[in-house]
TrEMBL record:
Binding site for Mn(2+) 2: C138, H140, E174, H198
Binding of Mn(2+) 1, residues: H397
Name of the protein this chain belongs to: Peptidase M20 dimerisation domain-containing protein
GO cellular component, one term: endoplasmic reticulum
Organism: Rhamnella rubrinervis
Bound cofactor: record note: The Mn(2+) ion enhances activity.
Length: 441
Protein backbone atom coordinates (compact mmCIF):
# COMPACT_ATOMS: atom_id res chain seq x y z
CA UNK A 1 0.00 0.00 0.00
CA UNK A 2 2.86 2.38 0.80
CA UNK A 3 4.32 1.63 -2.65
CA UNK A 4 1.04 2.61 -4.31
CA UNK A 5 0.97 5.89 -2.38
CA UNK A 6 4.40 6.83 -3.63
CA UNK A 7 3.55 5.81 -7.21
CA UNK A 8 0.55 8.14 -7.02
CA UNK A 9 2.71 10.91 -5.63
CA UNK A 10 5.25 10.46 -8.45
CA UNK A 11 2.47 11.26 -10.92
CA UNK A 12 1.90 14.53 -9.05
CA UNK A 13 5.65 15.27 -9.12
CA UNK A 14 5.79 14.69 -12.86
CA UNK A 15 2.84 17.02 -13.18
CA UNK A 16 4.86 19.95 -11.86
CA UNK A 17 6.92 19.87 -15.06
CA UNK A 18 4.12 19.93 -17.65
CA UNK A 19 1.13 22.21 -18.33
CA UNK A 20 -2.29 21.30 -16.91
CA UNK A 21 -5.16 20.18 -19.12
CA UNK A 22 -8.16 22.39 -19.75
CA UNK A 23 -11.41 21.38 -18.11
CA UNK A 24 -14.99 22.52 -17.80
CA UNK A 25 -14.42 23.08 -14.06
CA UNK A 26 -14.07 26.62 -12.78
CA UNK A 27 -10.89 25.35 -11.11
CA UNK A 28 -9.30 24.70 -14.50
CA UNK A 29 -6.57 26.49 -16.35
CA UNK A 30 -6.61 30.21 -15.46
CA UNK A 31 -9.27 29.57 -12.81
CA UNK A 32 -6.89 27.38 -10.80
CA UNK A 33 -4.73 30.33 -9.80
CA UNK A 34 -7.85 32.12 -8.54
CA UNK A 35 -8.72 29.41 -6.00
CA UNK A 36 -6.58 30.77 -3.12
CA UNK A 37 -8.00 34.29 -3.30
CA UNK A 38 -11.53 32.96 -3.87
CA UNK A 39 -11.30 30.70 -0.84
CA UNK A 40 -9.78 33.45 1.32
CA UNK A 41 -12.58 35.86 0.42
CA UNK A 42 -15.10 33.18 1.30
CA UNK A 43 -13.37 32.49 4.63
CA UNK A 44 -13.43 36.20 5.50
CA UNK A 45 -17.23 36.42 5.26
CA UNK A 46 -18.48 37.65 8.64
CA UNK A 47 -20.80 34.68 9.13
CA UNK A 48 -18.02 32.15 8.52
CA UNK A 49 -15.49 34.07 10.62
CA UNK A 50 -17.91 34.38 13.55
CA UNK A 51 -18.72 30.67 13.25
CA UNK A 52 -15.04 29.70 13.48
CA UNK A 53 -14.47 32.06 16.41
CA UNK A 54 -17.43 30.56 18.24
CA UNK A 55 -16.14 27.02 17.72
CA UNK A 56 -12.67 27.95 18.85
CA UNK A 57 -13.95 29.59 22.03
CA UNK A 58 -16.18 26.63 22.93
CA UNK A 59 -13.23 24.28 22.61
CA UNK A 60 -10.99 26.66 24.54
CA UNK A 61 -13.43 26.77 27.45
CA UNK A 62 -13.49 22.97 27.65
CA UNK A 63 -9.92 21.72 27.12
CA UNK A 64 -9.31 17.96 27.08
CA UNK A 65 -6.04 16.03 27.25
CA UNK A 66 -4.84 13.44 24.76
CA UNK A 67 -7.27 10.57 24.09
CA UNK A 68 -9.81 12.33 26.32
CA UNK A 69 -11.17 14.70 23.64
CA UNK A 70 -14.74 13.36 23.89
CA UNK A 71 -16.57 16.70 24.08
CA UNK A 72 -14.28 18.14 21.42
CA UNK A 73 -15.02 15.38 18.94
CA UNK A 74 -18.71 15.57 19.81
CA UNK A 75 -18.66 19.23 18.74
CA UNK A 76 -16.71 18.37 15.58
CA UNK A 77 -19.14 15.61 14.62
CA UNK A 78 -22.12 17.86 15.24
CA UNK A 79 -20.70 20.50 12.88
CA UNK A 80 -19.83 17.92 10.22
CA UNK A 81 -23.38 16.57 10.46
CA UNK A 82 -24.77 20.08 9.88
CA UNK A 83 -22.52 20.45 6.84
CA UNK A 84 -23.60 17.08 5.46
CA UNK A 85 -20.03 15.74 5.56
CA UNK A 86 -19.53 12.02 6.09
CA UNK A 87 -16.97 10.93 8.64
CA UNK A 88 -15.45 7.96 10.40
CA UNK A 89 -15.55 7.77 14.20
CA UNK A 90 -13.93 6.74 16.44
CA UNK A 91 -10.44 6.78 14.98
CA UNK A 92 -7.55 6.31 17.43
CA UNK A 93 -10.00 6.40 20.37
CA UNK A 94 -11.20 10.01 20.07
CA UNK A 95 -10.22 11.08 16.54
CA UNK A 96 -12.58 11.94 13.68
CA UNK A 97 -11.82 11.60 9.96
CA UNK A 98 -14.16 13.34 7.49
CA UNK A 99 -14.47 13.17 3.70
CA UNK A 100 -15.37 15.95 1.23
CA UNK A 101 -15.45 15.53 -2.54
CA UNK A 102 -16.12 12.71 -4.96
CA UNK A 103 -15.44 9.91 -2.48
CA UNK A 104 -12.99 8.53 -5.04
CA UNK A 105 -9.21 8.87 -5.63
CA UNK A 106 -7.07 10.82 -5.50
CA UNK A 107 -7.15 11.49 -1.77
CA UNK A 108 -5.36 14.36 -0.05
CA UNK A 109 -5.47 14.98 3.72
CA UNK A 110 -5.45 18.12 5.87
CA UNK A 111 -4.90 17.68 9.61
CA UNK A 112 -5.63 19.43 12.90
CA UNK A 113 -4.66 18.27 16.39
CA UNK A 114 -7.25 18.52 19.18
CA UNK A 115 -5.66 17.99 22.61
CA UNK A 116 -4.90 20.48 25.37
CA UNK A 117 -2.17 20.69 28.01
CA UNK A 118 -2.18 19.91 31.73
CA UNK A 119 -1.64 23.46 32.99
CA UNK A 120 -3.63 26.26 34.60
CA UNK A 121 -4.64 29.14 32.34
CA UNK A 122 -3.52 32.56 33.60
CA UNK A 123 -5.20 34.68 30.91
CA UNK A 124 -8.19 36.47 32.40
CA UNK A 125 -10.83 36.73 29.68
CA UNK A 126 -14.46 35.85 29.03
CA UNK A 127 -13.73 32.42 27.52
CA UNK A 128 -11.04 31.26 29.93
CA UNK A 129 -10.70 27.51 30.52
CA UNK A 130 -13.46 26.17 32.76
CA UNK A 131 -11.48 23.04 33.60
CA UNK A 132 -8.97 23.50 36.45
CA UNK A 133 -5.46 22.42 35.52
CA UNK A 134 -6.16 22.14 31.79
CA UNK A 135 -5.61 24.71 29.04
CA UNK A 136 -5.35 25.04 25.27
CA UNK A 137 -1.88 26.61 25.42
CA UNK A 138 -0.62 25.40 22.05
CA UNK A 139 -3.35 26.60 19.69
CA UNK A 140 -5.02 23.28 18.97
CA UNK A 141 -8.43 24.84 19.57
CA UNK A 142 -7.66 27.24 16.71
CA UNK A 143 -6.38 24.37 14.56
CA UNK A 144 -9.70 22.55 14.91
CA UNK A 145 -11.68 25.71 14.13
CA UNK A 146 -9.60 26.33 10.99
CA UNK A 147 -9.98 22.75 9.76
CA UNK A 148 -13.75 22.97 10.24
CA UNK A 149 -13.62 26.28 8.36
CA UNK A 150 -11.77 24.53 5.54
CA UNK A 151 -14.43 21.82 5.58
CA UNK A 152 -17.13 24.45 5.10
CA UNK A 153 -15.25 26.05 2.20
CA UNK A 154 -14.64 22.70 0.52
CA UNK A 155 -18.26 21.66 0.99
CA UNK A 156 -19.34 24.89 -0.72
CA UNK A 157 -17.17 23.98 -3.73
CA UNK A 158 -17.61 20.22 -3.49
CA UNK A 159 -18.78 19.83 -7.09
CA UNK A 160 -15.54 21.38 -8.27
CA UNK A 161 -13.25 18.98 -6.41
CA UNK A 162 -11.34 16.50 -8.55
CA UNK A 163 -11.06 13.84 -5.84
CA UNK A 164 -11.52 13.59 -2.08
CA UNK A 165 -10.20 15.74 0.76
CA UNK A 166 -9.68 13.80 4.00
CA UNK A 167 -10.22 15.89 7.15
CA UNK A 168 -8.06 14.50 9.97
CA UNK A 169 -9.02 15.61 13.48
CA UNK A 170 -6.19 13.96 15.39
CA UNK A 171 -6.07 13.28 19.14
CA UNK A 172 -3.04 13.31 21.45
CA UNK A 173 -0.38 15.31 19.64
CA UNK A 174 1.22 16.54 22.85
CA UNK A 175 1.66 13.11 24.41
CA UNK A 176 0.56 9.63 23.50
CA UNK A 177 1.49 9.38 19.84
CA UNK A 178 -1.89 10.25 18.34
CA UNK A 179 -0.57 10.38 14.77
CA UNK A 180 0.82 6.85 15.09
CA UNK A 181 -2.55 5.65 16.35
CA UNK A 182 -4.33 7.23 13.38
CA UNK A 183 -1.97 5.37 11.02
CA UNK A 184 -2.48 2.13 12.93
CA UNK A 185 -6.23 2.59 12.48
CA UNK A 186 -5.60 2.59 8.68
CA UNK A 187 -7.49 5.86 8.39
CA UNK A 188 -5.08 7.22 5.75
CA UNK A 189 -4.47 4.11 3.66
CA UNK A 190 -5.37 5.70 0.31
CA UNK A 191 -4.06 9.22 1.00
CA UNK A 192 -1.47 10.51 -1.49
CA UNK A 193 -0.31 13.62 0.43
CA UNK A 194 -1.02 15.37 3.73
CA UNK A 195 -0.74 18.99 4.90
CA UNK A 196 -0.64 20.41 8.44
CA UNK A 197 -0.16 23.81 10.07
CA UNK A 198 0.61 25.35 13.44
CA UNK A 199 -0.07 28.85 14.73
CA UNK A 200 3.06 30.76 15.76
CA UNK A 201 2.75 33.72 18.18
CA UNK A 202 6.27 35.05 17.58
CA UNK A 203 5.91 35.48 13.81
CA UNK A 204 3.98 38.29 12.03
CA UNK A 205 0.29 37.84 11.28
CA UNK A 206 -0.60 37.61 7.60
CA UNK A 207 2.60 35.71 6.81
CA UNK A 208 3.40 32.00 6.57
CA UNK A 209 6.68 30.26 7.27
CA UNK A 210 8.17 26.94 6.25
CA UNK A 211 11.01 25.30 4.35
CA UNK A 212 11.77 22.16 2.33
CA UNK A 213 13.56 19.34 4.13
CA UNK A 214 13.93 19.16 7.92
CA UNK A 215 11.86 21.81 9.72
CA UNK A 216 11.40 20.30 13.19
CA UNK A 217 13.62 17.90 15.10
CA UNK A 218 13.10 14.27 15.92
CA UNK A 219 14.16 12.78 19.22
CA UNK A 220 12.67 11.40 22.37
CA UNK A 221 12.67 11.30 26.14
CA UNK A 222 14.80 9.28 28.52
CA UNK A 223 14.48 8.41 32.18
CA UNK A 224 17.07 6.55 34.25
CA UNK A 225 16.89 5.00 37.70
CA UNK A 226 20.35 5.03 39.26
CA UNK A 227 20.51 2.70 42.29
CA UNK A 228 23.15 2.65 45.00
CA UNK A 229 23.04 1.98 48.74
CA UNK A 230 21.54 4.47 51.14
CA UNK A 231 22.94 5.45 54.49
CA UNK A 232 23.86 8.27 56.85
CA UNK A 233 25.28 11.33 55.12
CA UNK A 234 27.95 11.66 57.81
CA UNK A 235 29.29 8.17 57.09
CA UNK A 236 29.46 8.08 53.26
CA UNK A 237 31.99 5.24 53.17
CA UNK A 238 29.26 2.83 54.25
CA UNK A 239 27.00 3.90 51.39
CA UNK A 240 27.09 3.83 47.60
CA UNK A 241 26.05 7.35 46.66
CA UNK A 242 23.64 7.52 43.68
CA UNK A 243 23.60 11.33 43.79
CA UNK A 244 27.34 11.42 43.03
CA UNK A 245 26.82 8.89 40.24
CA UNK A 246 23.92 10.90 38.80
CA UNK A 247 26.03 14.07 38.87
CA UNK A 248 28.73 12.37 36.81
CA UNK A 249 26.06 11.07 34.46
CA UNK A 250 24.74 14.58 33.83
CA UNK A 251 28.18 16.00 33.09
CA UNK A 252 29.09 13.10 30.80
CA UNK A 253 25.84 13.38 28.83
CA UNK A 254 26.83 16.91 27.83
CA UNK A 255 30.00 15.55 26.23
CA UNK A 256 27.98 13.57 23.70
CA UNK A 257 27.12 16.74 21.76
CA UNK A 258 30.24 18.78 22.55
CA UNK A 259 32.78 16.03 21.79
CA UNK A 260 31.10 13.35 19.68
CA UNK A 261 28.69 15.21 17.38
CA UNK A 262 29.55 16.82 14.06
CA UNK A 263 29.24 20.59 14.72
CA UNK A 264 27.33 20.91 11.42
CA UNK A 265 24.79 18.26 12.52
CA UNK A 266 22.62 20.05 15.11
CA UNK A 267 21.90 17.98 18.20
CA UNK A 268 20.62 18.57 21.74
CA UNK A 269 20.81 16.49 24.90
CA UNK A 270 19.17 18.12 27.93
CA UNK A 271 18.74 16.72 31.45
CA UNK A 272 15.62 18.36 32.83
CA UNK A 273 14.65 16.01 35.64
CA UNK A 274 16.58 15.13 38.84
CA UNK A 275 14.77 13.49 41.74
CA UNK A 276 16.45 11.91 44.77
CA UNK A 277 16.70 12.26 48.48
CA UNK A 278 14.44 13.95 50.97
CA UNK A 279 16.59 14.73 53.99
CA UNK A 280 19.76 16.71 54.68
CA UNK A 281 21.49 13.85 56.48
CA UNK A 282 20.47 10.82 54.41
CA UNK A 283 22.11 9.42 51.27
CA UNK A 284 19.21 7.95 49.28
CA UNK A 285 19.05 4.46 47.81
CA UNK A 286 18.33 5.77 44.33
CA UNK A 287 18.07 8.82 42.10
CA UNK A 288 15.99 9.39 38.96
CA UNK A 289 17.25 11.57 36.12
CA UNK A 290 15.56 12.27 32.82
CA UNK A 291 15.41 14.59 29.85
CA UNK A 292 15.14 14.89 26.12
CA UNK A 293 17.32 14.53 23.04
CA UNK A 294 16.82 16.06 19.58
CA UNK A 295 18.33 15.85 16.08
CA UNK A 296 17.30 16.37 12.44
CA UNK A 297 17.91 12.89 11.01
CA UNK A 298 16.53 9.56 12.13
CA UNK A 299 20.03 8.07 12.09
CA UNK A 300 21.34 10.72 14.49
CA UNK A 301 18.33 10.28 16.77
CA UNK A 302 19.08 6.56 17.04
CA UNK A 303 22.77 7.24 17.64
CA UNK A 304 21.95 9.68 20.45
CA UNK A 305 19.62 7.15 22.03
CA UNK A 306 22.33 4.48 22.00
CA UNK A 307 24.97 6.78 23.47
CA UNK A 308 22.64 8.09 26.22
CA UNK A 309 22.04 4.49 27.31
CA UNK A 310 25.77 3.67 27.23
CA UNK A 311 26.86 6.82 29.09
CA UNK A 312 24.30 6.46 31.88
CA UNK A 313 24.97 2.79 32.54
CA UNK A 314 28.73 3.23 32.19
CA UNK A 315 29.07 6.26 34.46
CA UNK A 316 26.80 4.69 37.06
CA UNK A 317 29.03 1.60 37.08
CA UNK A 318 32.14 3.75 37.63
CA UNK A 319 30.55 4.90 40.91
CA UNK A 320 29.54 1.30 41.84
CA UNK A 321 25.88 1.95 41.05
CA UNK A 322 23.43 0.18 38.78
CA UNK A 323 21.32 2.01 36.20
CA UNK A 324 18.25 1.11 34.18
CA UNK A 325 17.39 3.42 31.29
CA UNK A 326 13.93 3.79 29.80
CA UNK A 327 12.95 5.63 26.62
CA UNK A 328 9.19 6.22 27.05
CA UNK A 329 8.63 8.06 23.77
CA UNK A 330 10.52 8.79 20.57
CA UNK A 331 9.56 10.58 17.37
CA UNK A 332 11.09 11.14 13.91
CA UNK A 333 12.06 14.57 12.53
CA UNK A 334 9.47 16.56 10.59
CA UNK A 335 10.80 16.63 7.02
CA UNK A 336 8.91 18.55 4.32
CA UNK A 337 8.82 17.10 0.83
CA UNK A 338 10.58 19.23 -1.78
CA UNK A 339 7.78 19.08 -4.37
CA UNK A 340 5.06 19.81 -1.81
CA UNK A 341 7.13 22.83 -0.78
CA UNK A 342 6.86 24.13 -4.35
CA UNK A 343 3.11 23.51 -4.25
CA UNK A 344 2.78 25.34 -0.92
CA UNK A 345 4.95 28.23 -2.10
CA UNK A 346 2.81 28.67 -5.21
CA UNK A 347 -0.57 28.45 -3.46
CA UNK A 348 0.39 30.61 -0.48
CA UNK A 349 2.03 33.14 -2.81
CA UNK A 350 -1.14 33.43 -4.88
CA UNK A 351 -3.16 33.99 -1.71
CA UNK A 352 -0.91 36.37 0.23
CA UNK A 353 1.69 37.66 -2.18
CA UNK A 354 5.03 35.92 -2.52
CA UNK A 355 6.70 38.44 -0.18
CA UNK A 356 4.62 37.07 2.69
CA UNK A 357 5.71 33.46 2.16
CA UNK A 358 8.92 33.16 4.16
CA UNK A 359 11.56 30.48 4.54
CA UNK A 360 12.46 29.68 8.14
CA UNK A 361 15.34 27.99 9.89
CA UNK A 362 14.77 24.52 11.36
CA UNK A 363 13.95 24.49 15.07
CA UNK A 364 14.51 21.89 17.78
CA UNK A 365 10.81 21.67 18.57
CA UNK A 366 8.98 18.52 17.50
CA UNK A 367 5.64 17.49 16.01
CA UNK A 368 4.07 14.06 15.71
CA UNK A 369 2.92 15.09 12.22
CA UNK A 370 6.29 13.55 11.36
CA UNK A 371 4.80 10.07 11.75
CA UNK A 372 2.46 10.82 8.84
CA UNK A 373 5.43 11.96 6.76
CA UNK A 374 7.13 8.60 7.25
CA UNK A 375 4.25 6.95 5.42
CA UNK A 376 2.88 9.70 3.14
CA UNK A 377 4.47 12.68 1.36
CA UNK A 378 3.71 15.51 3.77
CA UNK A 379 4.14 19.22 4.36
CA UNK A 380 4.00 21.28 7.56
CA UNK A 381 4.01 25.07 7.88
CA UNK A 382 3.56 27.86 10.43
CA UNK A 383 0.95 30.62 10.47
CA UNK A 384 2.07 33.90 12.07
CA UNK A 385 -0.15 35.58 14.69
CA UNK A 386 1.87 38.55 15.97
CA UNK A 387 0.43 42.04 15.43
CA UNK A 388 0.37 45.44 17.11
CA UNK A 389 -3.09 44.96 18.60
CA UNK A 390 -2.01 42.01 20.75
CA UNK A 391 1.49 43.26 21.47
CA UNK A 392 4.08 40.64 22.30
CA UNK A 393 2.24 37.31 22.41
CA UNK A 394 3.51 34.65 24.79
CA UNK A 395 4.99 31.43 23.34
CA UNK A 396 3.28 28.06 23.13
CA UNK A 397 2.93 26.13 26.40
CA UNK A 398 2.83 29.36 28.40
CA UNK A 399 -0.11 29.85 30.83
CA UNK A 400 -0.43 33.31 29.24
CA UNK A 401 -0.72 31.96 25.66
CA UNK A 402 -3.35 33.68 23.49
CA UNK A 403 -4.76 33.26 19.98
CA UNK A 404 -5.08 36.08 17.47
CA UNK A 405 -8.43 35.00 16.04
CA UNK A 406 -7.99 37.25 13.01
CA UNK A 407 -5.79 34.52 11.47
CA UNK A 408 -8.56 31.89 11.43
CA UNK A 409 -9.80 32.75 7.89
CA UNK A 410 -6.27 32.60 6.53
CA UNK A 411 -5.57 29.19 8.05
CA UNK A 412 -8.86 27.71 6.83
CA UNK A 413 -8.40 29.11 3.32
CA UNK A 414 -4.84 27.78 3.10
CA UNK A 415 -5.96 24.33 4.21
CA UNK A 416 -8.73 24.26 1.61
CA UNK A 417 -6.63 25.77 -1.21
CA UNK A 418 -3.68 23.44 -0.73
CA UNK A 419 -5.99 20.43 -0.87
CA UNK A 420 -8.23 21.54 -3.74
CA UNK A 421 -5.38 22.63 -6.01
CA UNK A 422 -3.41 19.48 -5.21
CA UNK A 423 -6.37 17.35 -6.33
CA UNK A 424 -6.85 19.31 -9.52
CA UNK A 425 -3.19 19.18 -10.50
CA UNK A 426 -2.93 15.51 -9.58
CA UNK A 427 -6.01 14.58 -11.59
CA UNK A 428 -4.93 16.66 -14.58
CA UNK A 429 -1.52 15.01 -14.68
CA UNK A 430 -3.07 11.58 -14.30
CA UNK A 431 -5.18 12.25 -17.38
CA UNK A 432 -2.15 13.56 -19.22
CA UNK A 433 -0.09 10.48 -18.35
CA UNK A 434 -2.92 8.22 -19.50
CA UNK A 435 -3.11 10.19 -22.73
CA UNK A 436 0.59 9.72 -23.31
CA UNK A 437 0.32 6.00 -22.73
CA UNK A 438 -2.54 5.83 -25.19
CA UNK A 439 -0.47 7.63 -27.84
CA UNK A 440 2.33 5.11 -27.40
CA UNK A 441 -0.08 2.26 -27.97
Amino acid sequence: MVFLKWVSFILFVLGQCVPTLPSDSSFSSNGLSQIPSKFLNFAKKPELFDWMVGIRRKIHENPELGFEEFETNKLIRAELDKLGINYRYPVATTGVVGYVGTGKPPFVAIRADMDALAMQEMVDWEHKSKIPGKMHACGHDAHVAMLLGAAKILKEYQKELQGTVVLVFQPAEEEGGGAEKVLEAEALEDVDAIFGLHVEPRLPAGEVFSRPGPILAGGGYFEALISGKGGHAAIPQRSIDPILAASNVILSLQHIVSREADPLDSQVVTVSKFQGGGAFNVIPDSVTVGGTFRAFTKETVMQLRQRIDEVITGQAAVQRCNASVNFPESFPPTINHEVLHEHFHKVAGEMLGIHKVKDMKPTMGSEDFSFFQEEIPGYFFFLGMQNQTFGQLQPEHSPHFQINEDVLPLGSALHASLAATYLFEFQSQLHLQQGNFHDEL
